[in-house]
Specification:
The complex is a heterotrimer of chains A (about 550), B (about 180) and C (about 425).
Chain A: H1 14-18, H2 20-35, E1 38-42, H3 58-68, E2 74-78, H4 85-88, H5 103-112, E3 119-123, H6 127-133, E4 143-147, H7 152-164, E5 169-175, E6 178-184, E7 188-191, H8 198-201, H9 211-218, H10 228-231, H11 236-250, H12 259-271, H13 283-295, H14 303-310, H15 312-315, H16 323-338, H17 354-386, H18 395-404, E8 409-412, H19 423-433, H20 440-457, H21 469-483, H22 493-507, H23 515-534, E9 543-547, E10 552-556
Parallel strand pairs in A: 1-2, 1-4, 2-3, 4-5
Antiparallel strand pairs in A: 5-6, 6-9, 7-8, 9-10
Helix pairs in contact in A: 3-23, 9-11, 11-13, 12-13, 16-17, 17-18, 20-21, 20-22, 21-22
Chain B: H1 14-17, H2 30-40, E1 48-51, E2 60-65, E3 77-82, E4 93-96, H3 126-138, H4 148-156, H5 158-169, E5 173-174, E6 177-178
Antiparallel strand pairs in B: 1-2, 2-3, 3-4, 5-6
Helix pairs in contact in B: 4-5
Chain C: H1 6-9, H2 11-18, H3 32-39, E1 42-46, H4 50-60, E2 66-71, H5 95-106, E3 111-116, H6 124-128, E4 132-136, H7 140-153, E5 165-171, E6 174-180, H8 203-208, H9 213-228, H10 239-255, H11 263-271, H12 278-297, E7 306-310, E8 316-320, E9 336-340, H13 346-355, E10 365-367, E11 372-374, H14 379-385, H15 393-396, E12 402-406, E13 414-420
Parallel strand pairs in C: 1-2, 1-4, 2-3, 4-5, 9-13
Antiparallel strand pairs in C: 5-6, 6-7, 7-8, 10-11, 10-12, 12-13
The chains are: A alpha/beta (about 550), B alpha+beta (about 180), C alpha/beta (about 425).
């Protein structure tokens, strides 16, 4: 068998086969980033009073499951809890034999079984102690996951350490049927490969063709003299160029610019189709007609990219600027030249003879290549200007940037939101509270739960406070007080009632998790972790709330 | 809001739930029902005949087209139709069971008809397919062929193409390929 | 080892089921009755793959004790990036059995019964035993089948015959979960247009004017294989077959100056591979099992009736009520009971259909699942079925069997369950 099947044809390696279904989403480059990353999970932060071992931590373990399976490099679990009976009714990565043992160790062991390529380690101590003994602990990871509620001091310590080291943080809480999580990205977080819908990235340059494309269009000037077969196979791009030329000649060189003109132009193209055939029309003309409204728009820079060009990081490059900014600055220079971005160079499929299509495709590819070379030149001169850097920016990276230029994105990282930390956060919460459909009250309920747990952990209030109406009501009032400190009239009874209901739903399980909610949330959090680690697709900015009672979610920039 | 079942209701024995006759009988499938309707709504001219090897299985049948005009006049062309249970989400599979010389039908019997593939929609019915098939024999389409040689002949020399059609239909050889005799 | 008190092990679940929430139904009675109703509910999981593995885990940790699972597939290496109940050593074994054994071992007290085979192997008696069905399938055809089977089982005199169907599906970073109450809410068939058909390229493009690497692969798969290896059935799991398609496509691409044919692409095109990752499956599977828990216990309102999720750009979900279609070919024309004299001929029965006020069908064609009773058109089939007209109903149908009737005068079709008088 092996002999009859030469090595070159033996197909993908076993690793490629194992990861095939995900490589189709983030390719080898995304997989490499994943394998180069180590994730820290802080899964609980000590007991809540005497009765509870603290956060049950299912959401953290479920998140890790979804990162171990696709092959993250490694993970570290920090969890001081001991496995108890209730853990076994919630956590799939524990077994009967785990009872009484370290939860960190047991979950780590059973998670590692999922993928032999992933390294895992565990620490059965509170995070504060670990960091005290080993200050570099957090910095040895590329992502920090925290399962809350967690003491405010631990959360602040972790968020600060992560931020100082440029590490993203995902802070998650899952209670009963509801959950919420927030992403803290360090500083500015650029993404090149945002994977937009291919339809939206199409750039055909029909209104401003470069000379080679113009020439290809000129070659079909004799459209009427073509025989039926050839006429029915002229690529629609060339049909449109042909009629644009015709239009310009009767409109003082202007192209169709408004809806009315485009509709007129469309009719002009339509009337060029030959109908004296079996089908009563021509497919390539149909395609041309269908493309008029969406393809004949003058190029305009997306506002997100315009903002990137205007950012300080792009305008004032430094010797140690990230590669992203140097390429962005080069592309900005490219753009300033004739208000265009480098051509992405892809051509949609269209009715055409093979050779004609390939020839046209080559015109686009060649132009794209030329634009990339120009950008490479610009990058090199910026590099020369900035002075010595550790390494030259690779042409491959410049190429990827050029191909994705129109949709690159920069997210401005925000801290893990706290209602009393940032006036902007408070304002957004307040404005959403007035909308009776919004699930923002759940976020407040979680904030109150965080508060109560912190106070129990610090011995300020007794364990029973977790299910004490007076404690909850006082804190609901306090939260409303913070939100409405400038104008108490803004929150009506309805909004207050919605916050109360949200806390009631959390209180059903007294802060405990339900497996389904944590499994679902673990999926969502892992999804964000993957996007952050691979720097592909667009991560959450910055808070998501899931309401499993009514099966819906909402995103907020808090 | 609907209460799916009352929590207080005693769990009923599943066996008692349905009729007395033990084994449940299968339901007519959505695909069968749709084909039943499509067949009833067909308009078959005198040039078309359908045969059902097993009349109880309406998802598999043969359509014979006997063009009474055009270049293929005098021939009888047989196509097998295979409709799967995912019909009408999936189009019917149609194949010519004879080896014929036609620009839109290849030597394996594959048929190039847009509504059998890229343009199929569940709102289309068997009648639309049959009309399309009939049209292929009245107006063979040279511009997008499956049989490139036949298409080139049709495009470049219509008379020679016609002669080739006659030869092939009689079971003769065209360009070194022997075709099935399909004359009535 | 002494078995622990279930109230300790299931502490948080029991709390959620013992305390009303602000959104639970006013008439709901929390507590032990609800808990025992949950624990005695028999549920069926269809599919033990990407969604199925997660669904089984979630149900087992949601208090369900009697779970059945159907899957006909065996484990492949490409499943291991998400189907977390399987290991390298399990490759080639049946998914349903391996998954059931794993979850049963891990979660004490749960019984999981696997069935390795097709859902179509089972009849209504089988499906009748379950309280609800959770479905994690990748095939539209199988979904349509279970949908129409469950709709056909509904007997309005017996509320237990209504089996909620909770369906999940994923594709890359996207997915959806939906709750279907057969005959009462929008069904899979009503929502069929939400499944975009696989875009197809004209056969003639593939045959004569290929432009894309995919066209060359389709040519190798659909045309060259038929010509060159006619007698061998193509097997998309056979690496040699895929290798041949890849090589053949590569040669054709070279001939047309087309670049970009890769082995991975060849496999993707031939097998119609849909990207799949653990995290999306986790989201959708848990969305379906959360609904299963809510429906089985009434502890919170269930999804009405569709939630879609897209994770490429942030976390986006959209929850809405898909509409039930009046002209749905499956739930729009439910079988009605019709009492008939079994000794009546089919011809006489057809006459009565024209007279019965509830029918008034003048030119019906009709069939059972296995038999064409009478088909008016085309003529050949009419001739073949005409002899049935003189036969007695009892020779053609069984007591309680369903017939489906089409009549050109009506745009919808009818189903009757014939009860012998």
């Amino acid at each position: 068998m092996a002999d009859a099947f030469p090595q070159a044809l033996a197909g993908p390696s076993s690793k490629e086969r194992r990861y095939d279904r995900q490589l189709r989403l983030w390719a080898a480059s995304g997989q490499q980033s994943l394998e180069d990353s180590r994730v820290l999970l802080v899964n609980s932060d000590g007991p809540w009073g005497k009765q509870s071992t603290g956060v049950t931590g299912v959401v953290g373990v479920e998140t890790l499951k979804n990162l171990v399976l696709p092959g993250i490099g490694g993970f570290t679990i920090v969890d001081p809890a001991i496995v108890t009976e209730p853990d076994l009714g919630l956590n799939f990565f524990l077994e009967e034999e785990s009872l009484g043992k370290s939860r960190a160790e047991e979950t780590c062991r059973l998670l590692r079984e999922l993928n032999p390529d992933v390294a895992g380690s565990s620490h059965a101590k509170p995070i504060a102690e670990i960091v005290k003994e080993d200050p570099g602990f957090v910095s040895r990871h590329q992502l920090v996951l925290i399962s809350g509620p967690i003491q405010r001091s631990s959360l602040d310590m972790l968020c600060t350490a992560a931020k100082d080291n440029g590490i993203p943080v995902l802070y998650t809480r899952s209670v009963g049927f509801t959950s919420t999580f927030s992403l803290q990205l360090p500083g500015v977080f650029p993404i090149v490969e945002t994977h937009p819908d291919p339809e939206t990235t199409q750039d055909l340059r029909l209104l401003n063709p470069w000379p080679e494309l113009d020439m290809a269009g000129a070659r079909v000037m004799n459209l009427d003299s073509l025989d039926d077969h050839e006429h029915g196979h002229v690529p629609y791009i060339l049909i449109l160029l042909h009629y644009l030329d015709k239009w310009k000649r009767s409109h003082n060189g202007a192209v169709p610019s408004n809806y009315k003109e485009k509709t007129e132009f469309r009719e002009m193209v339509r009337s060029g189709a030959r109908t004296n055939n079996a089908e009563g029309g021509e497919e390539n003309f149909d395609e041309a007609v269908a493309a008029v409204l969406k393809s004949l728009n003058p190029f305009s820079l997306r506002s997100s990219l315009r903002e990137i060009f205007e950012m300080d990081e792009c305008k004032n490059l430094r010797q140690d600027s990230a590669e992203f900014w140097i390429i962005a600055a080069a592309i900005h220079e490219f753009y300033k030249k004739d208000n265009l971005l480098p051509l992405p160079g892809s051509l949609p499929d269209m009715k055409a003879q093979s050779a004609d299509y390939i020839a046209l495709q080559n015109i686009y590819k060649t132009k794209a290549r030329k634009d990339i070379e120009e950008v490479v030149g610009l990058v090199r001169s910026i590099e020369a200007r900035l002075g010595p850097r550790p390494a030259e920016i690779s042409e491959k990276d410049i190429e990827i940037f050029c191909k994705n230029a129109s949709h690159v994105k920069v997210i401005h990282g925000r801290n893990i939101p706290q209602i009393d930390a940032d006036a902007r956060t408070t304002k957004i919460i307040k404005s959403n509270l007035t909308n009776s459909d919004s699930i923002i009250p759940l976020f407040l309920a979680f904030q109150i739960l965080d508060d109560i747990v912190t106070d129990i952990q610090q011995g300020k209030i007794p364990d029973e406070s977790l299910d004490d109406d007076v404690v909850w009501n006082t804190r609901i009032d306090r939260v409303i007080g913070v939100i409405t400190s400038d104008n108490p009239a803004e929150i009506d009874e309805g909004a207050r009632e919605r916050i109360v209901q949200a806390t009631q739903e959390l209180r059903r399980t007294e802060g405990g998790e339900l497996h389904n909610t944590s499994a679902l949330t673990g999926g969502l959090v892992a999804q964000e972790a993957l996007k952050v680690i691979t720097r592909q697709y667009v991560p959450l900015d910055n808070t998501c709330i899931f309401d499993g009672v009514r099966s819906r979610s909402e995103m907020f920039k808090l | 809001m609907l209460k799916i079942w009352s929590m207080k209701q005693k769990q009923q024995q599943a066996e008692n739930a349905e009729g007395a006759d033990g084994k449940k009988k299968k339901k007519v499938t959505a695909a069968q029902l749709r084909v039943q309707r499509d067949l009833q709504e067909l308009t078959l001219g005198s040039t078309m005949k359908m045969t059902f090897p097993n009349p109880d299985d309406i998802l598999n049948f043969t359509l014979t087209i006997e063009p009474d005009e055009g270049m293929y006049k005098g021939g009888a062309f047989a196509f097998s139709f295979t409709v799967n249970q995912n019909f009408p989400h999936d189009p019917p599979k149609v194949k010519c069971t004879q080896k014929i010389y036609h620009p839109n039908i290849d030597m394996e019997g594959n048929v190039c008809l847009n509504i059998l593939r890229e343009d199929w929609k569940p709102v289309l019915n068997l009648n639309a397919v049959i009309v399309g098939m009939q049209f292929l024999f009245l107006e063979p389409n040279a511009s997008d062929p499956l049989n490139k040689e036949a298409a080139d002949d049709l495009r470049t020399n219509r008379e020679a193409f016609k002669r080739n059609v006659r030869t092939s239909m009689a079971g003769g050889t065209v360009r070194g390929v022997q075709f099935d005799k399909v004359l009535r | 080892m002494a078995s622990a008190d279930p109230a300790t092990r299931w502490k948080y679940l029991y709390k959620a089921l013992s305390k009303p929430g602000p959104f639970s139904d006013e008439d709901w009675v929390p507590g032990s009755e609800t808990i025992s109703a949950l624990e005695s509910s028999k549920v069926l999981v269809i599919g033990a793959g990407g969604l199925g593995c997660d669904i089984l885990k979630n149900l087992a940790l949601s208090g369900f004790k009697d779970i059945h699972v159907i899957d006909m597939d065996t484990i492949d290496i490409s499943n291991l990036n998400r189907q977390f109940l399987f290991r390298q050593a399990d490759i080639g074994k049946p998914k349903a059995e391996v998954a059931a054994a794993f979850v049963e071992k891990r979660v004490k007290g749960v019984k999981i019964t696997p069935y390795v085979g097709k859902i179509q192997d089972k009849d209504e008696d089988y499906y009748m035993q379950f309280k609800l069905i959770v479905c994690g399938l990748d095939s539209i055809e199988a979904r349509r089948w279970i949908n129409s089977t469950l709709i056909g089982m509904v007997d309005f005199e017996n509320p237990e015959s209504l089996k909620p169907l909770i369906d999940g599906g994923t594709e890359g970073f996207k997915g959806q979960a939906r709750v279907i109450l057969p005959t009462l809410s929008s069904c899979i068939e009503c929502q069929l247009d939400m499944h975009a058909p696989r875009p197809a390229v004209p056969l003639c493009t593939i045959a004569t004017i290929p432009r894309q690497p995919q066209h060359c692969i389709e040519w190798a798969h659909q045309i060259a294989w038929q010509e060159k290896r006619k007698d061998e059935p193509f097997d998309s799991d056979d690496m040699e077959h895929i290798g041949w398609v890849y090589q053949t496509a590569l040669e054709r691409a070279k001939q047309f100056n087309i670049s970009g044919v890769t082995f991975q692409m060849a496999q993707g095109v031939v097998k119609n591979i849909i990207p799949a990752i653990a995290s999306t499956n986790a989201v959708i599977a848990a969305a379906t099992t959360s609904e299963a828990l809510k429906i089985a216990t009434s502890c919170n309102p269930y999804l009405e009736n569709y939630m879609m999720y897209a994770g490429e750009d942030g976390v986006y979900t959209y929850t809405f009520e898909a509409e039930k279609k009046a002209d749905c070919p499956v739930c729009g024309n439910l079988a009605r009971k019709m009492t008939v004299d079994p000794d009546m001929t089919l011809e006489a029965y057809i006459e009565t259909l024209g007279e019965r006020p509830e029918a008034q069908l003048k030119k019906p064609s009709m069939r059972t699942e296995e038999k064409t009773l009478y088909q008016r058109f085309p003529p050949q089939l009419e001739e073949q079925t005409r002899p049935n007209l003189q036969r007695k109903l009892r020779e053609l149908v069984q007591d309680g069997q369903e017939i489906a009737v089409s009549d050109p005068a009506y745009v919808i079709d009818f189903r009757y369950r014939l009860i012998f008088s």
